[in-house]
Inverse folding.
């Protein structure tokens, strides 16, 4: 197994190997010729099974199947905050059984319009075999993301032959259907095996083939298979230099499919699926209804998508923008905080009251998610900021501790009540990390609506942030805190490390230190532009190289 | 209810009406050993999981086993002579294992093995920065062991069936079945999908079914060849991963042949699921009922002999909105209040009572199916497990285990036994004995020295 799960935040702060950072630029020659020692920051690349999301996107692009057929598969194992971690994705009898059934459903749908599958071959005119071979070669190349070997081609042709010779089948379409069925169950389709080219660059370090690089880029930046342009570049072996790769990455981020990436990443990083099950006591929060959940989520997704793909791309804007995206119902929920008038169900950009709202952190949906059913929760909000934005890992409460949120007290504010609990020495060790950050969000009630008072008392949104790398101090309200978070190296590097894990499908290891440093450098020098970070993810040694496949079991320390 | 041509009919009451249920022993069940077991219904084992402990203070049955006035278990009164309540059985191994209370309770309950070291899931004590990581469960679970053993004798359509109700994400908190150490088994959660997977063969034209089999075999043969070639290029670790995948395909292909023969004998249940996603919180009761209906019919049709139904997961946050006075707050949250909190206690009573009612529903279905002189319930042992004893203390002592059904007379039912602190591994050993696949120890030997005494006749 790969070493993994190192405390990534600490690791990022650790010293990096001298000389690793000089390989960002480079000339136009093949990456092979860089003078940097490739053996630094190069690790094994485990095979990666497609996630359900990737499977769905892939059959959409491969066959035009938009039914999200992989939704029936068992859920991915969630590790280190993401569901696409190669080392954690296990196999099971159920998964394999469902792969078969999904492949049957998809292939049956695909041959309903056989003409679309074979635009340039007519079995009546050109003959079954000619058209079958032509289909297998073309479809197989796109499905396996590289040309088929002769053996693979013959194997699929024999499946085709079986069907057309089967008395109860026999039609050309039947043959094509079983070819698709077999292809979708092949490990070459279900797994991404990026094994590298055969010639070492240095020691046991190898580059990837252009076909493998097309697949790496495509699943990393689109969460789906390569498009025609990537496949053409692979065919021409034009995915070998850093410049070629960066140019493709830049192009890909301008494509609509990058939205899938942005939405998928932020759904997981910001725990947006939790929003689907938010429940509130409507006695306390009459403004709440379940119809708000999708609106809250869409607001955040639209905002992030806009900032990263259409706006300035900066982390600062994500955290401190004074605008958002809403429709009429959502704007009505926000009330006076929205300065524009909004009508209709369509989302549009709106100006927010800059004294009340700041970027994604004060979005009502996030505030409501990290709250209790009948009150805000300084604990949950503090925990969210600590874990998701600062990459701290907070331990669970001890086994034997009885935990309960305080009963509502009409004479106290939530902050006063939680201050009493937090003062308990048994709890203070952890809760001083969370509760004061949560207090800073106390202007947002349990559904995320602004409040100046609670139970007749003025809101006190002052909290003291402690034990951070660089933003310790007292803050009054979310506007101040968000601004500090946006300028915090700890937060910036946390965001970078979250992207690392998501994009590379694995946790950061000690061998990654110079790749991590390179990413942080680019992020910093681009004024924390997430688009630049995404392109930079295609330029690290961790992405560009791997160690050659070891056919025998590893010995010694790597097991 | 559709009636299909079938042999060897008996009458039973299931799914709200009197229906014909096919006898399970059919041609397709010819044992590999060649020794025909004609006429005898097989033994089965079913595991039933609910989370977050129970109301330990009121859980035990009265001395006379009359459950009719019991605050939790009244719904199970009709079956009291087919039940065994086990007091004083502890998950000792969970206290040796790394991992938090819920993780260990969940990963150990069917494995009696410690959680693996690993870097997948975070677990913590309250020293900030001293977080620990753990891996998956560290042993094969007893349901999978039994399924593997039975598979040596007979090939059923499914080696085992794991059903879940809103288990949701996959982690060490949500998996109790393991095919091997580090190999969690996911449950099937979508009732509509399950219906298709389990029962679509039954009403199909036999010729069409045979064609599907031939076709699947042809495709899977090619896929397996492809696997072999693919694996040759991989490094050692990746190869291990693919080998597991390939083994599953081999198993799948082997079981393809089982389908046709059962098509003549079984009745597909009517689900009557209300609209809405099975994943929505308030669909929990309806989804659970559909899963129970299908589980029982799958047993009656001998699609498998080993099954489980996992309600949610450890740390279950299901909100029992259908019980009026606890609208809103989730089960896990409620399970954390202090014992002195009367409201929380009342809520936990309602939750655990509701689960007892569901258990009684399952037992009723099973007891309504005659198999020779016995009922399906008599031929089965249903094992109710929980990852904890009680939620607010996270104790893994005094787990509220209940056995139902005698497994063809192996268990001496109709009693309440206080074991006074026996390790639960011995219960797992008892189950292997009951199902005629006996082992001396299961998982950690120290905590599984032979079966529990007093359970069997």
């Amino acid at each position: 197994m790969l070493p993994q799960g190192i405390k990534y935040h600490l690791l990022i702060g650790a010293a990096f190997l001298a000389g690793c950072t000089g390989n960002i630029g480079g000339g136009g020659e093949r990456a092979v010729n860089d003078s940097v020692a490739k053996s630094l920051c190069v690790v094994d690349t485990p095979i990666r099974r497609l996630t359900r999301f990737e499977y769905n996107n892939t059959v959409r692009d491969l066959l035009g199947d938009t039914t999200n057929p992989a939704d029936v598969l068992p859920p991915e194992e969630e590790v280190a905050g993401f569901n696409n971690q190669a080392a954690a994705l296990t196999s099971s009898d159920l998964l394999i059984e469902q792969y078969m059934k999904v492949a049957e459903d998809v292939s049956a749908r695909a041959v309903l319009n056989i003409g679309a599958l074979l635009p340039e071959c007519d079995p009546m005119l050109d003959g079954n075999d000619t058209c079958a071979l032509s289909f297998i070669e073309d479809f197989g190349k796109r499905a396996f993301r590289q040309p088929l070997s002769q053996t693979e081609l013959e194997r699929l042709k024999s499946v085709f032959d079986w069907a057309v010779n089967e008395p109860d089948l026999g039609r050309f379409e039947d043959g094509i259907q079983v070819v698709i069925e077999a292809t979708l169950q092949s490990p070459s389709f279900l797994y991404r095996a990026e094994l590298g080219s055969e010639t070492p660059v240095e020691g046991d370090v190898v580059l990837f083939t252009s076909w493998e690089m097309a697949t790496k880029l495509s699943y990393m930046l689109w969460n789906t298979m390569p498009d025609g342009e990537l496949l053409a570049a692979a065919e021409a072996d034009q995915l070998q230099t850093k410049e070629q790769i960066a140019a493709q990455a830049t192009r890909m981020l301008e494509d609509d499919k990058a939205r899938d990436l942005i939405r998928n990443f932020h759904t997981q990083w910001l725990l947006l699926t939790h929003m689907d099950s938010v429940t509130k006591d409507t006695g306390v929060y009459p403004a709440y209804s379940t119809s708000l959940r999708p609106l809250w989520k869409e607001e955040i997704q639209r905002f992030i998508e806009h900032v990263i793909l259409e706006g300035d791309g900066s982390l600062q804007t994500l955290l401190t923008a004074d605008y958002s995206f809403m429709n009429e119902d959502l704007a009505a929920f926000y009330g006076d905080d929205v300065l524009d008038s909004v009508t209709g169900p369509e989302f549009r950009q709106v100006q927010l009251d800059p004294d009340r709202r700041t970027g994604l952190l004060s979005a009502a949906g996030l505030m409501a998610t990290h709250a209790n059913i009948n009150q805000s929760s300084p604990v949950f909000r503090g925990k969210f900021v600590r874990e998701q934005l600062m990459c701290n890992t907070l331990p669970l409460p001890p086994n034997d501790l009885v935990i309960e949120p305080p009963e509502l007290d009409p004479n106290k504010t939530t902050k006063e009540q939680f201050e009493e609990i937090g003062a308990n020495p048994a709890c203070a060790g952890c809760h001083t990390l969370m509760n004061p950050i949560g207090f800073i969000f106390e202007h947002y009630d349990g559904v995320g609506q602004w409040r100046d008072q609670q139970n007749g008392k003025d809101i006190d949104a002052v909290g003291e942030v402690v034990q951070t790398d660089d933003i310790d101090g007292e803050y009054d309200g979310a506007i101040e805190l968000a601004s500090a978070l946006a300028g915090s190296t700890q937060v910036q590097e946390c965001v970078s490390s979250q992207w690392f894990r998501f994009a590379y499908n694995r946790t950061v290891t000690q061998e990654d230190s110079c790749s991590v440093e390179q990413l942080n450098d680019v992020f910093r020098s681009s004024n924390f532009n997430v688009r630049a970070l995404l392109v930079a993810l295609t330029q690290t040694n961790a992405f560009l190289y791997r160690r050659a496949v070891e056919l025998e079991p590893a010995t010694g320390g790597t097991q | 209810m559709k009636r299909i041509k079938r042999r060897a009919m008996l009458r039973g009451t299931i799914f709200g009406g009197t229906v014909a249920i096919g006898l399970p022993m059919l041609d397709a069940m010819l044992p590999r050993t060649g020794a025909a077991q004609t006429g005898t219904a097989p033994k089965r084992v079913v595991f039933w999981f609910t989370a977050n402990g129970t109301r330990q203070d009121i859980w035990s049955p009265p001395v006379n086993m009359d459950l009719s006035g019991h605050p939790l278990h009244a719904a199970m009164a009709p079956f009291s002579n087919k039940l065994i309540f086990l007091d004083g059985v502890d998950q000792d191994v969970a206290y040796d294992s790394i991992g938090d209370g819920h993780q260990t309770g969940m990963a150990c309950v069917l494995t009696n093995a410690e959680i693996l070291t690993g870097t997948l899931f975070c677990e913590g004590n309250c020293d900030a920065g001293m977080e620990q990581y753990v891996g998956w469960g560290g042993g094969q679970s007893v349901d999978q062991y039994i399924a593997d053993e039975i598979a040596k004798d007979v090939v059923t359509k499914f080696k085992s069936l794991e059903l879940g109700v809103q288990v949701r994400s996959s982690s060490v908190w949500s998996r109790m079945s393991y095919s091997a150490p580090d190999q969690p088994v996911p449950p099937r959660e979508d009732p509509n999908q399950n219906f298709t997977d389990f029962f679509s063969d039954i009403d199909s034209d036999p010729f069409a079914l045979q064609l599907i089999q031939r076709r699947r075999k042809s495709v899977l043969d090619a896929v397996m060849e492809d696997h072999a070639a693919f694996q040759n290029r991989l490094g050692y670790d990746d190869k291990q991963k693919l080998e597991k995948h390939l083994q599953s395909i081999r198993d799948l292909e082997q079981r393809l042949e089982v389908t046709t023969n059962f098509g003549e004998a079984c009745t597909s249940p009517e689900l009557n699921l209300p609209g809405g996603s099975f994943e929505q919180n308030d669909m929990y009761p309806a989804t659970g009922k559909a899963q129970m209906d299908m589980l029982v019919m799958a047993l009656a049709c001998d699609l498998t002999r080993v099954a489980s139904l996992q309600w949610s997961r450890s740390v279950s946050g299901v909100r029992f909105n259908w019980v009026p006075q606890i609208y809103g707050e989730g089960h896990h949250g409620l399970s954390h209040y202090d014992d002195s909190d009367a409201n929380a206690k009342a809520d936990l009573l309602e939750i655990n009572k509701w689960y007892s009612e569901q258990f009684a529903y399952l037992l009723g279905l099973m007891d309504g199916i005659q198999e020779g002189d016995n009922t399906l319930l008599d031929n089965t042992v249903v094992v109710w497990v929980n990852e904890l004893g009680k939620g607010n203390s996270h104790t893994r002592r005094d787990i509220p285990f209940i056995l139902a059904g005698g497994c063809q007379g192996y268990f001496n039912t109709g009693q309440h036994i206080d074991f006074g602190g026996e390790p639960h591994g011995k219960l797992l050993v008892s189950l292997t004995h009951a199902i005629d696949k006996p082992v001396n120890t299961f998982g950690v030997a120290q905590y599984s020295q032979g079966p529990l005494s007093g359970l069997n006749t």
About this structure: Chain A touches chain B through 77 residues (CB under 8 Å).
